[in-house]
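Hello K.,

You asked for the raw outputs rather than the summary table, so here they are, unedited. I folded two proteins back to back in the same session to keep the settings identical. This is the first:
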Amino acid sequence: METTLMRLNAQPEPRLTVTRNPEAGAQSASSAFIEANTVSIPFTEIQQDHIIPVYVKDNEPLISQSDFIQTTQELVNTIFRGEQVLSPAIRCSHPIKGRTPEAKDKPANQLQDWEKTLYYERMMFVIEIPTVHDTIDGNPLTLTVGGVKAYNLDNLYNKKGAAEHFKVFIGFKNMVCTNLCVRTDGYLADLRVSSVDQLYSAIYQLLSSYDQHLHLRQMQSLTEHSISEQQFAQLLGRCRMYPHLPTDDKKQIPALLYGDSQLTSVCRDYYKDVNFCRQEDGRINLWKLYNLFTGANKSTYIDQFLDRSINALDFASQVQGALQGNSTSWYLN
């Protein structure tokens, strides 16, 4: 693997030379980075048409989803000056519908558009930087920044100034399948801030500390190891057993966050996925196994998506350590 991706500097100075993708378009290749229970929403709709939740005690607004997206996009444009930055791809779920007081007695099918109110409880977005890219096992990867805002995590019975919850990440999108590849040092799982300025500072620190070289090396190393069909069957069987283990036993085993429906997808795609299925002899390398898990993760709800994405890479690396003899794995024991 060769790459000229550069570490981010301590200050938002112009980035040095990076590999460039001449075929990168002006819009995201696909917004289907997550599918379960979500709809694609344009930024202008979120900004202009969606109401903003407020704190009950003082009627002050929370940080809006549009402010979150704009803040992140401004930082990406600043830190990655000179790079192509695509417009955000946004997915929302759990709509909260309402109506104006004037329409309180109208049947729902008679409501006019101006009488309806709407916001989505959960929102996730990604911003691609296609001119910062690399290739692993023939799969093109582009640098991607994004986040999650879920109002259900906030205490709306508070006053302005209370902590508001966000999730932010930087990683790579596999352009073959739009799977997101995220590593722990590129993820703020429980960012709590009370102002846009604090949000800006926290996102900046994340983008500055992320080591894309290390992330790429870790993923590239997965291509060097593979498991047999028998090992895959045992691994998947143990994955299904894990949720039902006694509590004391589970404490001794690295956590697996994937449920039965996702594991069913992994099993199906082991045989049928066009890009990541097994070889003719049944073997599958760990990069492809990892992508089977990140592909299955698309059926996850927004509030669990990034945690499972992190877990997929951790899980693949644990299997790799067992194959190398550096550690043991209950899933392959």
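The second followed immediately with the same parameters:
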Amino acid sequence: MRGLRRGPPAFTAARAALRYDAGAKALILPFKHRDAVEMARPLARHMARAGRELLAEADMLLPVPLHRWRLFARRHNQAALLAAALSRLSGVPHRPLLLRRLRRTRPLGEMGARDRAMELEGAFGLAPGAARLLAGRRVVLVDDVLTSGATADACARALLAGGAARVDVLAAARVPDPRMEGA
């Protein structure tokens, strides 16, 4: 379990437009895996409402990056499409190339939170010159689905190490925490 961090995530706040249930899956899975890129704008409208406070304080939007081979296979990065649509709606500039996925990671879908965190350790970094653009900025990290928070945490750690003042997360949907079900 080398270097696995425990405790609160590196990001400050997280918001999601939808609960990741059957209805949300019907919208997001075709967007993510079947080239239904036209879903970016309607999903971004919901995200803009859910993340109004985060967007009001943001200096820039950054999508969670895909590794180049996954991007090649999918032909689009759904988080980048959402960030671009959110930028148009909110006026907050998006910088799709500042954060990079440095190495391939296994698909996280069936992993638990601890395995996700271990798989993502050291997976993200900054593009050359990114630290200058990040210095002292409030960043909203954009993703399609927030599951355990491991991806957002790994990205936030890289951004904060690069000089960002604050990182918040805005997702299209959030997988419910099973510990909170029935509470």
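The chain has a mean pLDDT of 86.

Happy to rerun anything if the numbers look odd on your end.

Regards,
P.
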